[in-house]
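User: Can you help me understand a structure? I only have the sequence.
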Amino acid sequence: MDVRAYLLERTPLVDEALERALPAAADPPAELHAAMRHLVFPGGKRLRPVLSLAAAEAVGAPPGRALPFAAAVELVHTYSLVHDDLPCMDDDAERRGRPSVHVAYGEASAVLAGDALLALAFEVLATAPTAEAVLPAQRLAALTELARAAGSRELVGGQSDDLSLASGRADAELIESIHLRKTAALIAAAIAGGALLGGASAQEVNALRRFGLAVGVAFQIADDVLDADEEEDSSLVALLGLDAAQARAEEFLAEALAALEDFGERAEPLRALARFSLRRTE
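Assistant: Let's start by predicting it. Here is the structure, written out as tokens:
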């Protein structure tokens, strides 16, 4: 399938949901709301929310069923980027081709914008309507999925270990553990959450979660390979070299695709997105 065409088709659905969710930049407090929107529009690849929509399709539901999760996971992802860029974290001056939020609006506004994006994510997931009814139990399970992925055992914990990583002391197991939590957990949640809102069975959710974790690690290794940053402590490229790191990413891709063996053609968008997330040229 044409994965780029699929992304182009699904991304406007996500953007419309995000536009409905976010306060207008002029709404008071205007600076805070403008800072919240700064990295959301224009966005990045929208990979995580589109994976949510594809997961709903994989279990036989229309993609619109997963839109609340798609918007919520993108808000959590954006909050994490805003905070990652702060001087006390990775201290990055640019993000998505424009000044980071703390550069554009100041450090305090960036902290508050990230806080507000995180809170808004759960409001959207709890309250946003869908084209078809979502059962309260399905919405609660999706909320739990996202909260777990965003917490200290997953995304935040991975960031904590990444920041404390001592140069020269990382091994492949620790680096992959950081990738699993800092990057893969939210990708897996995007997929499992979309499937939950789509009415997936527990067996389907577990398989899709395994798929997402493997895709997430492959995605992070692929990012490190593209950056070719051999000085980054939390990179398999620094530890293993480019070729070995890329081979490891391919192993994770194979593991991900194996998790979808029991899914039919409806999961083809997930397979295509997995390959795209690793190779970026298909």
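Now, to help you interpret it: The chain has a mean pLDDT of 93. The two ends are 10 Å apart (CA to CA). Let me know which part you'd like to focus on.
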